Amino acid sequence: MYAGEVLLGIESLTGNCTQGRVFPLDDHTWNTTGITGIGVGATDFSIQWQNEGSDFPWTQQDGAHANIC
Amino acid sequence: MADPGRNGRAGDPFLATTVLLPRILSASRRCPTLATTVQTLMAASAPMYQGGATQDQVDAMFTQDWCLVKLGSGGLTGVRPMGGIGNGDVTWSTSLWFDRDSGYDFAQGNWTWHNHDYATGFNFGCTSSNVGGRDGIGLRLSASNGVGYLLHGGVIEGWGDPGLNSYSTGNYGTWSLSQPSAADAYGVAYLR
User: Is ipTM over 0.90?
Assistant: First the structure.
């Protein structure tokens, strides 16, 4: 994979302004790896795989933050 | 510092003003006639990235052509080594946007895998024509109050290096995902 873009449309659930922060995540597998699932938790992100192949730990990076209403 | 463009939301006495304002501005500011959605924004920005545009150029397009307001700060480009292997670094750029017309906010992320020279520097069974399997890509938005946000649309588009479009399984092609899964116990969903 070389490059790409993610776009999310969001709005406040409460109607009040809230400080929000974006965390981009990435996890890589190799061509011998079959992805069997994706896990999304409150604070993390993971993929599950089978077969051989090495993957790096998922990475998380602190991104943009703003007051979102 | 207060974010720009925050007046006129629900409960604000100037709500009527901001409902009318975009229509007035649209005649003179080239605001889009297309609805501003994750799909239309992706259609406008992804070709720019693929053509080599910088994040600043994409930001300018969102501001000038779509009349979006960039929120907050910290939308910087950073690099985080993956597993300590410099050859596999990924650069992310993230930003948050507000659309005066719809009242919606948008979170945007753009990633670039620095280097496709997998055969150099490490060996996990990869060669120059064996570049790996699927990657997991995520963009999470956390709220300081823990309540979170309503997700009303999401789309991911990825693309390979056109100069290396020779991998037999087509991994260097362009792909797009926009069908979300059911939300999990945390109220979050994913595209696959």
Answer: no
Residue B47 CB contacts under 8 Å (≥ 6 apart), including other chains: none
pLDDT, one tens digit per residue, over B13-25 is 332 333 333 334 4
Q: How far is Cα A52 from Cα A13, in angstroms, rounded to an integer? A: 42
A20 and B96 in contact by Cβ < 8 A?
Answer: yes
Q: Is B73 left (phi over 0), alpha (psi -120 to 50) or beta?
A: beta
In angstroms, what CA-CA distances link B20 with B14, B17, B54, B106? 11, 5, 33, 21
- pTM (predicted TM-score): 0.74
Residue at token pair 């991998």: B167
For chain B, the domains span 15-135
pLDDT at B144: 80
CA A55, CA A60: separation in Å to the nearest integer?
Answer: 15
Two tokens, residue A38: 């994706």
Q: Do B152 and A11 touch (CB under 8 A)?
A: yes
Q: How far is B22 from chain A (nearest CA, A)?
A: 18
